[in-house]
Each structure stands twice: as structure tokens, then as C-alpha cells.
């Protein structure tokens, strides 16, 4: 047993030896005072020079150097594998985004989409958007952000169906939203009341949910400029995910609020076409239908006039004729005149 005195308090007999500087201490308090006074880490420096004579006589030094080299090699290999895995995920995600983007029609491009004006107002620095499935406009966040990493929406080959990632938010009217949770790979054909996991919802709400037919669903309007109240779009519990997200805008994936009672203390101004009133939408639809009917009438009338012109020789006298449509007059020959006079006398 060592008979050296503690190098810190200089009173009691030493019990411990610092691995880094080999200072002798007697207690935990003296160890802390030693590290604070001499700024010692207490960790052996594996790169410290050791003479060959010491290596030959001390096996612990050889083992220390060997373990240091093994750990160093292991860290390098782990760094390489992590870098490869992260690169694969980034390239795979970018490829899937390009692959799953629906080809826009010539008369319905994203630039002509009126929803893009709302997106640019709320997200002026948005990098990418895409239109998927039932004309659902998706706003993509930069790669690496948590919501972007959570987005697993895409076509599932095993189930042969398009699946969505959905964020569920338990909510009560007049109270702050509770902690949300995310469900992955929900089929777009699933009804909202069947898609929400009832046991998990009850756990997050802290109460028994009861019958799922009494639940109310609301889609968050991510392009709303209303800052005092949460902007929600009412959804029907009996409609599918595809129908609920038709012509809607989502940030990476839909965020749906679930409540036991009907929510009243919220902003519902974006419920109809993100700020468009039902009258304007009906007017636009009626205008489009009237324009289509007018075009059909024009095409019918033009085809009718063409057919009448083509068969003018066989038409009856009851059909009105225009002067421009009459055939040009010609002079009768002498035999035709005699034949006409004979017909008149016979009659």
C-alpha cells in the first residue's frame, strides 16, 4: 500500500492515482480539486510518447495502444457507413419525389393553379411543390427537416395502393391542442373514422373516445394568414382520405384535428376553396358549363349548316334558302324550250 501523502490536501494518506498525470489523491473531493486546479481531464492521452524500454516492460501500455488503434479504425468505418446511408436516403427521397410527381396537363399546370398564389404569400421561399392523386397540392420542405423526414407518403407496391402519412392532433374546443402523433402508410381509400387509431387517440386525449362515429375531423389550412385562431377545414368522417384531400393544400403530409365535439372557436374562412366563397365557385362552374354549352351549340349549328349546304339539291322547298345559297342561273337551250312548251300544252 502506498505511503505517499495526498498531493492536494497534504494531510491524509493517498488512495487514488490520476491516470493522466499520476497525481496522488485521497478522496473524491481532492480529485475534483485536483482537476479544477491543474485543468486535468483524468483521461489517459493515448498519443503521449512512451519510450521503447517502457513498452517492453509494461504490457498495459501495449494493450492501450492496440485498443486505441482498434477504436480509431472502428470510428472511421462507422463514419463511412453513416455517410453512405445518409446519401442513399437523400438520393432515394429525391428520386421518389421526381418519380411520384404527376405530369401536369397542358391546360392545368402548377403555374396556372390559383392555389400557388396562396402558397407564395405564406411560403415566399418555398423550393418545390407537387400535385398528387386527387389534385392535392403538396408543399415540400428542404431535405433534412423533421417534417420532411417523417413524410413516407407514396405508392406502396405491396398493397398496390397510394398511402399517406397523417398527423393526428387531438383537440377540444376552447382548449389548446394536445400532443400530436403521426400514422404512416394509411391507404387513401380508408375512411377517416377507420384510419385514426382509436387506442392511441384515447391515450393522447386522456379520456375514453367511445364510438368513432361521433368523432369530428378538421384539416389544417396550412396557407391561412390568420394568426390568432387555428384555420380548419371541416371534413366528413365517412369520406376517404383521397376525397378529404381532393383539391386541398398540405405541408408535406396532411395534419388533421380530431375532436369529440364540434369545434366552433376556429377560423373556417378557408373551408370553401381556401377563401373562395361557394357563390364564386358556383358562378365559375356555371360560367364554364355555359361556355361549354355555347361551344357545343356553335359546333352543332356549324355542322348543321355544313350538312344543309352539302345536301341543298335534295332539300324540299319548305326549307328557307338565302340568296347567296341559290345556284347561279343559266340560259336554256332551244330543245329545252320546246320541251317545256309541250309540257305546258299537254297539261
From TrEMBL:
Coiled coil: none annotated. Keywords: Metal-binding, Phosphoprotein, Zinc, Zinc-finger. GO terms for cellular component: nucleus; pre-snoRNP complex. Residues 274-347 are annotated as: Disordered. Residues 6-40 form the HIT-type domain. One of its GO terms (biological process) is maturation of LSU-rRNA from tricistronic rRNA transcript (SSU-rRNA, 5.8S rRNA, LSU-rRNA). GO terms for molecular function: zinc ion binding. Residues 283-292, 300-313 have a biased composition (Low complexity). InterPro entries: BCD1, BCD1_alpha/beta, Znf_HIT. Belongs to the BCD1 family. Required for box C/D snoRNAs accumulation involved in snoRNA processing, snoRNA transport to the nucleolus and ribosome biogenesis. This is HIT-type domain-containing protein. It comes from Metschnikowia bicuspidata var. bicuspidata NRRL YB-4993.
